[in-house]
Amino acid sequence: VATVACACRFVPMLSGSAWWLLLLDLGIANAQFQFEMPAEMLQGMFGGQMGGGQQPKQTEWPKSVSSEIEPAYAFLYNTEWKGKTAKYLLRREGIVESSLKECSHEGACKWAANHNRLLTNTPTLKVVKFKIVGLESADKKKLADKDETELKKIKFVTEKPSKSGKHSELYFERVEVADEKEITSADLYKVLELEEGADAAQIKSKYRRLSVKNHPDKGGDVNVFNEIRDAYEILSDPDNKRYYDLGGVQLVRNMETGFKEMEGKAAQMDAQLNQVPKNHPQRAAFEHQIAQQKEQLSKKRVKPQLEDNMRSDTIEVQVPVSAKELVMGAPGKDFAFNRLVLCRGCSVDPDAPHCKDCGRCPPEKVQVPKYANTPFGRQVVAMSEREQESRERCREIRVPLKLRIPQGAVDGKVLQKISEIGHQTPGKLPGHVEFKVQRGASGDQHTAGENDLHTVMAISLEQAVFGFTATWTHLDGSEVSLDRSGGCSPDEVVRFKRKGIGKDGHLYVRIFVKMPNQEQGASELRLQRQQATEIKNPALEAEKEVYLHDGKVWRRWTEREKATSGKRKQVKREEL
Fold first, then answer.
1. Do the Cβ atoms of 117 and 192 come closer than 8 Å?
2. Which residue of 67, 324, 346, 397 has the fewest C-beta atoms within 10 A of its own C-beta?
3. To the nearest 10°, the Cα dihedral for 337, 342, 346, 351?
4. Residues contacting 283, CB < 8 A, separation 6+
């Protein structure tokens, strides 16, 4: 969006045609006003000649070269490497930012990393392959944390030499990090010698004692006194204390900036109104309209909107639900998920004892304006989002929960949504977390397909030929009996009605026949009837041949359609 300035005397913000009537009535022919025009409209108006004409064609990877950035090389994101004549900043999107002229347009130069190689792709040089040297001796955990000492152990060397016979090399230069703000980075609770979660009375009492003790008039250090005062200003305000607890000092400053922007808009309205004479017949109407618009900018109304703008995205957490929980339900399932929280004060002193388990926080996203030359001068025509490594430190904690699992819970069902329990990010409010059902858990002996359960029971070849019976305790505590004393066919599927999920679900048992080991060269196989043919609590295994797709059960075998009763059945030997 471009802001276009025209020759007028003030900025109209009232809606409708009232402003134009007022301008004509006052005889103002030289007013000041602004309006916003989409960049696409400007480009259409002026033949796409903004910013030097049409954008160059994106660089494409040859089909014979992999453009993948393998997870093992994720530590290269947002790192800059220096060669003899240029620097290369490797962005997460696979884009290279470089001082090379051919890389001046976004997307013109690209990079990839796979199979122990770094690859760059530019319009002129095309694909250049580098060997990654020194990766074996580097600490992988420190690399993931963007530790500069470890990154300096690595260099990139071209696989093919130049015409002079020399191999080009790239060396680590820096990590692209978020701009360093002029804000307090120390732990404010420690500054006031308080435990996290201290109440208003404790904060006020501790501040009074420390401010008297460290006051410059009594020989105290000015810097220490200012730090104590700044900490109190934040923690003594309930809203700011909450913002600090959830997103650090940067979130406090971001919210303050948002409120000031709204105050500036209200002041701008007042300034515009002051240009309308008090004795003008429409003055009262304009005052009423501005009062209504200012009401919309009040802190009470603006606060929820600003908080939503500052909030991270909602996170979806999959909760594995076992077949037994699907059948019986679970009023209080124990579950825990990993959450990132800010390590306060660790950006200042990363070697402090409480910072031992803290690593670099996830990258921060910043808005970067894009400029172009327009008939109105150099204007901002668009905003792009750029990722930068955070200066703050974070650690992972386990958050325990009790979740209610209803009987027959379907895949993707939201079990619970908890506000502001997502990952903490500097300068942002944590997002909400939705806990969703994921059917199937480790150790399950049954696969759920809609309302049916599917399992596999393995038997020997002798049992298949001479017959067997089996009994076991089902998930709901009832007893299941299978009578095949007359033998059975391989992969026969047996259905037990209303033993699945809910009233309409069934239990399907596929009988898998294990073939005996036979000596090489043997011309015959001897089978012997066993005296005990009853199997108690047979080993069951979740059926892997059943899967859900588009909400329906699909089978890789067809025997389910021929499912028979669990009662006794005679099978002829020649069927095997």
1. no
2. 397
3. 0
4. 276, 277
Q: List residues bridging with 453 in a β-sheet.
A: 448, 507
Give me the numbers of helices (H) and strands (E) for the chain, helices first please. 12, 28
Contacts of 406 (CB under 8 A, 6+ apart): 329, 413
Whether the CA torsion 418, 392, 364, 119 is positive or negative: it is: negative
Report the distance separating Cα 453 and Cα 448, nearest Å. Answer: 5
**Helix (H) or strand (E) run with residue 325 in it:** helix 323-328
Q: Look up residue 359 and give its amino acid.
A: G
Asked if 255 and 243 touch (Cβ cutoff 8 Å), the reply is yes
Q: How far is CA 402 from CA 189, 333, 335, 436, 452, in A?
A: 30, 5, 6, 13, 27
**pLDDT score for 43:** 47
Name every residue whose Cβ is closer than 8 Å to that of residue 264 and which is 6 or more positions away in sequence. none
Contact at 8 Å (CB) between 436 and 318?
yes
Q: What is the per-residue pLDDT across 264-314, written as a single tens digit (0 to 9) for each?
A: 888 888 888 888 898 888 889 988 988 888 888 888 889 999 999 889 999
- Chain segment 329-357, per-residue pLDDT in tens: 999 999 999 999 999 888 888 888 888 88
Quick one: tokens of 154?
A: 């690595």
Task: List residues bridging with 177 in a β-sheet.
Answer: 389
Nearest to 407 by CA among 359, 479, 476: 476
User: Which are the contacts of 78, defined by CB distance < 8 A and separation ≥ 6?
Assistant: 89, 90, 91, 92, 146, 175, 176, 177, 363, 387, 388, 389
Structure tokens, 191? 């500054």
Strand locations in 169-243 (E): 169-175
The string of pLDDT tens digits covering residues 86-111 is: 999 999 889 999 988 899 888 899 99
Question: In angstroms, rounded to a whole number, what is the distance separating the alpha carbons of residues 569 and 468?
Answer: 11
pLDDT for residue 568: 65
> Alpha carbon 198 to chain centroid distance?
31
Q: Which two tokens stand for residue 193?
A: 């010698």
**E strand spans, 137-195:** 155-158, 169-175
Tokens of 118: 């770094």
Give alpha helix (H) positions in 8-163: 18-26, 39-45, 140-144, 148-151
| Structure-block tokens of residue 214 | 């460290």
One-character DSSP codes across 468-532: EEEEEE-TTS-EEEEEETB---TT-EEEETT-SSSTT--EEEEEEEEPPP--TT---------S-
Q: What is the mean pLDDT of the chain?
A: 83
What's the helix, strand, coil split of the chain in %, to 5?
25, 30, 40
Identity of the residue numbered 572: K
Q: What is the DSSP string of 413-461?
A: -EEEEETT-S--BTTBBPPPEEEEEEE--TT-S-EEETTEEEEEEEEEH
